[in-house]
């Protein structure tokens, strides 16, 4: 039984469903890396995708657990004990693929934003001493190629490539309550960095059975020279003459180092009946490489202190399974279920996620495809508490709980073959 045409039509809906479900995962992941365009059977293809994600994580039962820097949002125990922690975001991706004649070599170039974070509990959150707003964004520019040759009933591919990645972000929190002068007490960390990474992989495909399996490793990206600033110009503390002459901190340069983790992903899809395709994937991501990331000036002092981003992540694991169906030569659909293991351990609110995704693909003419997908997921419940590791306290500013919350996503894409 020949499933070749089934793959070419249904695979588009499969990709749509998986794009929507992968846009909110553990750690800092926003879909991660994607090289599916490399396997497009056409000689040339251009693809553009955008995904809107709305995670609705709510924190509750908040309690300021560190009176040393003032209690609550005002230093006196005030502030809300519950808040919406997350903000919605967009995830774009653009790629182009080309086959180099009959050489068996295919190459693709793409731009994406694979990682990021956006939390905004606000300045009235009782845990303002821990976080009022944090935003991290990445830009990734990649080139990936493969060489394929006949082996058995199908073809085997060797895959290799590299990518350049930029990261920037900031974090704001209440450093000291607004008791003195006009300062609002908010300190801000800004940072930026860039680095290089690479990928290798192996794939095997049998078009007759719509069969494709791949194993791809993406390397760690080391940011050995993160640069940025700490701005404490809005922070006032008592001076030697008391509150009438407060000490005003300033703005100073800092540096640090961190890594975006390595990952290993296995994917498989196959025709299982006329016009039906089954698919699945499993991905491991080394998020435990991100524990506590320190940022310090050249010389630390009471007026120019260090700071850190405390994550204490564990490794991530993402498993997806689903089916796709071709309704006719123009329309196809797919449905998938994804489980993502939460990367938070004792602190923070990244718990396990279950996501149901659906996607449809429409092919009005031979060389043009439109895809639309949606996803709805459950962010499971948990809590964040202080802990001590090797004598160092973490999460000591605030404790809180979170229930079973909802995440939704909508994705659209356009592919043109020529």
UniProtKB/TrEMBL annotation:
Family annotation (InterPro entries): OMPP1/FadL/TodX (IPR005017)
Localization: Cell outer membrane
Keyword annotations: Cell outer membrane, Membrane, Signal, Transmembrane, Transmembrane beta strand
GO molecular function: long-chain fatty acid transporting porin activity
GO CC term (a single one): cell outer membrane
Domain of life where this protein originates: Bacteria
KW Hydrolase (keyword) present: no
Lipoprotein found in the keyword field: no
Secretion signal span: 1-25
Region (Disordered) residue spans: 55-86
Main location: membrane
Topology relative to the membrane: Multi-pass membrane protein
Family that this chain belongs to: Belongs to the OmpP1/FadL family.
PANTHER family referenced in this protein's UniProt entry, alphabetically: OUTER MEMBRANE PROTEIN NMB0088-RELATED
Protein name: Transporter
Organism: Ferranicluibacter rubi
């Amino acid at each position: 039984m020949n499933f070749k045409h089934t793959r070419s039509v249904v695979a588009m809906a499969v990709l749509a469903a998986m794009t929507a479900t992968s846009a909110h995962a553990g750690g800092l992941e926003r879909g991660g890396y994607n090289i599916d365009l490399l396997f497009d059977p056409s000689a040339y293809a251009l693809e553009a995708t955008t995904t809107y994600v709305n995670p609705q994580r709510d924190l509750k039962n908040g309690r300021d657990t560190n009176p040393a820097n003032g209690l609550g949002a005002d230093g006196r125990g005030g502030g809300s004990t519950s808040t919406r922690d997350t903000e919605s975001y967009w995830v774009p991706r653009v790629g182009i693929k080309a086959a180099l004649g009959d050489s068996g070599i295919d190459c693709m170039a793409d731009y994406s934003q694979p990682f990021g974070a956006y939390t905004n509990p606000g300045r009235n959150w009782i845990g303002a001493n821990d976080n009022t707003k944090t935003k991290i964004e990445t830009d990734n520019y990649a080139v990936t190629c493969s060489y394929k040759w006949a082996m058995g009933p199908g073809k085997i591919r060797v895959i290799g490539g590299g990518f350049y990645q930029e990261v920037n972000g900031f974090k704001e929190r209440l450093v000291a309550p607004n008791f003195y002068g006009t300062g609002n007490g908010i300190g801000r960390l800004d940072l930026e960095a860039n680095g290089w990474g690479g990928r290798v992989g192996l794939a095997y495909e049998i078009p007759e059975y719509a069969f494709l399996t791949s194993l791809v490793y993406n390397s760690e990206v080391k940011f050995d020279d993160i640069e940025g600033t700490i701005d404490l110009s809005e922070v006032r503390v008592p001076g030697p003459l008391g509150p009438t002459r407060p000490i005003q901190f300033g703005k100073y340069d800092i540096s640090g180092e961190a890594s975006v983790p390595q990952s290993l992903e296995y994917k498989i899809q196959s025709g299982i009946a006329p016009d039906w395709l089954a698919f699945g994937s499993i991905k491991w991501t080394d998020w435990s490489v991100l524990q506590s990331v320190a940022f310090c000036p050249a010389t630390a002092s009471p007026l120019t202190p260090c700071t850190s981003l405390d994550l204490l992540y564990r490794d991530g694991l993402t498993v997806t399974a689903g089916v796709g169906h071709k309704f006719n030569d123009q329309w196809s659909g797919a449905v998938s279920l994804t489980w993502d293991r939460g990367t938070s351990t004792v602190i923070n609110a990244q718990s396990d996620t279950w996501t149901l995704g659906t996607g449809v693909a429409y092919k009005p003419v031979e060389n043009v495809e439109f895809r639309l997908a949606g996803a709805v997921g459950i962010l499971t419940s948990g809590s964040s508490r202080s802990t001590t590791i090797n004598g160092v306290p973490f999460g000591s500013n605030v404790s809180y709980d979170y229930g079973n919350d909802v995440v939704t996503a909508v994705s659209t894409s356009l592919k043109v073959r020529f």
